[in-house]
Structure formats: structure tokens, C-alpha cells
Amino acid sequence: MSTDDSFAAAYREHYWAVSRFVARRLDAGEEHEVEEVVADVFSIAWRRRAELPEAPLPWLYAVARNCLANTVRGLGRRRRLLHRLSHHETVGGRQIMDSPDTERPGSWVHDALARLSPADQEALRLTTWEELGVDELAVALECSPGAAAMRLHRARRRLRAQIDRMQMNVRAGRAEQAAPTEQEALAEQAARAEQAGRAGRAGVDSRD
After folding, report:
1. Can you tell me the distance from the alpha carbon of 63 to that of 168, in angstroms, rounded to the nearest whole number?
2. How many C-beta atoms lie closer than 10 Å to residue 3's C-beta?
3. Are 45 and 63 in contact (CB under 8 A)?
4. Helices and strands in the chain, H and E counts
5. Phi and psi at residue 48, to the nearest 5°
6. Residue 75: exposure state from Cβ atoms within 10 A (0-12, 13-18, ≥19)
7. Per-residue DSSP letter, 1
8. Helix (H) or strand (E) run with residue 183 in it
9. Which domains does the chain have, with CATH numbers?
10. What is the CA radius of gyration of the chain?
11. Are 64 and 45 in contact (CB under 8 A)?
12. C-alpha angle with apex 105: 100 to 108, nearest 5 degrees?
């Protein structure tokens, strides 16, 4: 198979997998960037089609990671510019509505994942979302299989530690809510004392 044929086959078979890979790593409100990033990925793949391996998908993921890094840096610069403009407009007596992607809701799993380093997050995403094995992970991360296995092991261990820490915080918060505060306890004691005093006075009055 010629290099042109290899590229055409990779494009047909993996276009949507690469699109999903990119879409999962962009924030809400940035979906319009997906097609542009994917186009960059396959443009680079075309120029480097002689390097396409027999199983090209992990290699395409590696290219996509680099393209995403460039896109995210550009989006970050744009957000900082919008923030400065928003601050300027607010100071001038006007207010700009926040972009809908300023906050992204997520479950506790996303919260735990977000507390990890970008390298740990990517190792976990590639093996969970893209279902890569260790050898494929090594290609996507551009490292040796041994290094990829170690990175994955450490990422999983750190994720578990974050989840355990978050669960402990949740349990501690529930315990604090259930336990009365010092002021509540003092108020309850005072109420009981007053009630006992009233009962005592009522007993004396009834004997008189």
C-alpha cells in the first residue's frame, strides 16, 4: 500500500475517533474549534504520511495532543483578553455578560480528575475514554511502554487518593452539619434550665 493509500485509509477509519478525542478535551462552548483542530491533525498527518505506522490511531492521538496544546494556548490568550475587556467595561460603568463557558458543571469524578496534573489526566483519559492499551498509550504519549505503564500506575494511584480525600471531606461536612454548634448546645441547656425552673416554681405554688 502506498503512503497516499495509507493516509486515505487512516482518514476514513479514524476521522471520527480523532474528532471525539479532540471534543472531549475542549471546554463547553468551544465545540466550534473541533473541526479546525481535526483539520490540523490530518494536515500534519498528510505531510508526515511516510511516518504513519501500521496502527495509526495512537500516532494520530499524539499529533492531536500537540495541536490541542496550541489551540488551548490560543484560547487562554483570548479568555485573558476578554477578562481585561470585561474589567475595563465594568470600571467604566458598563457590564459584559460572562461567557457561558466560564463555569463547567461536573460530577465529583470530574472534580477529582481536575485536581491531578495535566499529565496524569491525559494518561487516564487515553486509557479510559480512548481505551488504549499500554503500548498504544506509549505511542500517544511519545514515550517508552515502561514509562507509559509507570505514568498510568501513578496517575491511577493519585486519582484514588483524591477520591478518598474528597469522600473524607464529604463525611466530615455531614458530621459537622449533624452535630450541634456550641451556641446551639448552650441555648438548649439554657432552655432546659428555664423549663426546669418553671416546673419547680409551679410545684411550689401548687403546695401553697
Report:
1. 39
2. 13
3. yes
4. 8, 0
5. -110, 30
6. middle
7. -
8. helix 182-207
9. 1-105 (1.10.1740.10), 107-199 (1.10.10.10)
10. 29
11. no
12. 165
- Nine cell digits for residue 171: 463525611
CA distance 169 to 158: 17
Cell of 167: 469522600
Q: E strands within 39-164?
A: none
Q: At what angle do helices 145-178 and 134-141 cross, to 10 degrees?
A: 100
Single-letter code of the amino acid located at 128: T
Per-residue pLDDT for the chain (208 aa), expressed as one digit of tens each? 788 899 999 999 999 999 999 888 887 666 778 888 899 999 999 999 999 999 999 999 999 998 888 877 755 544 444 444 444 444 444 333 333 333 343 456 778 888 899 999 999 989 988 889 999 999 999 999 999 999 999 999 998 888 888 877 766 666 666 555 566 666 666 666 666 666 655 554 555 5
Tell me which residue has cell 484514588: 160
Q: Which amino acid is at 79?
A: R
Number of other CB atoms surrounding residue 152 within 10 Å: 20
Handedness of CA 84, 87, 89, 91 (dihedral sign): negative
Q: How many CB atoms lie within 10 A of CB 157?
A: 11
Strands (E), 110-155: none
Element (H, E) at 121: helix 118-128
The CA distances from residue 115 to 10, 118, 162, in Å, are 35, 9, 7
